Amino acid sequence: MSFWMREASLQIGTKRYSMDNLYFEFEVPFEDSTTLQTATFKAYNLSEATRKGIRRGDAVILNAGYEGDVGAIFVGQVSVCSHQHQNTDWVTSITATAAMDEWLGRKVSKTYAAGSTAKEILPDLLNIFGLEVGQLELAVNKVYDRGRACNGKVKDVIKQIAVDECKSRLLIRAGSIIINNPAAGINNGILLTPQNGLLLSGKEIEETVIAVGSDSQKSSSTKSEEGNYITRECLLNYHIGPAEQLAIRSPSLNGRFIVVKGKHIGTPKGDWKTALEMKPA
Predict the structure, then answer these.
(1) Are 250 and 193 in contact (CB under 8 A)?
(2) What are the chain's domains?
């Protein structure tokens, strides 16, 4: 990656802006849960017509990264928008929510035959829900000997089947729905090191070592940290999201970890980073 060449684009409704023609800032929190992702944006000096044209439900898509490596960080819709005149600038503040329409509006009323399995039912429900399916791997494939009636909001039925009945993870990530075993992460083969973007904390000491699966090699400070999240930051990395399984190699932290929560933060001339809270894999 060319870390010094930041690139980003922000789509609001049908209009798409790059950082070359619009100054904007973003903060995109994420976590490994069914909680909907909500992002905040500040855009400076949009035209009056554009400001007046932004409506609740308008598409919001953020792509960010570096020259030659840019990808989706957030896909959602406007939930709140306000405009404020500050000195000579107009500042537009937008709160956007992932899958807002799908989560709030889609309903289902169907009955599946006796002997149907969750693995057979869920693809049909996900098709009704309307989001791209990034992964569908159930921890338990429940068999419905007497069939399965599905009535109500699609998101509630999907959550009941995937999470409650099949003991699986359910999350929405960059416009895709993920269902998989909560004991596993989403493994895209990401390795973080100080050489490729891991930012070292001032609290880190070289004596701390995490060696997964070998208590005898763990320092006392590492053992006291277990049971709590391990926090680190890296240069903004759109590849990382909730439930990502990472390998980390640094002077003070080595092992595999699953991202529990975090956030992407970006300003054209300020922070451009991803903050992570992780647990050992």
Answers:
(1) yes
(2) 6-98 (2.30.300.10), 106-180 (3.55.50), 186-280 (2.40.30)
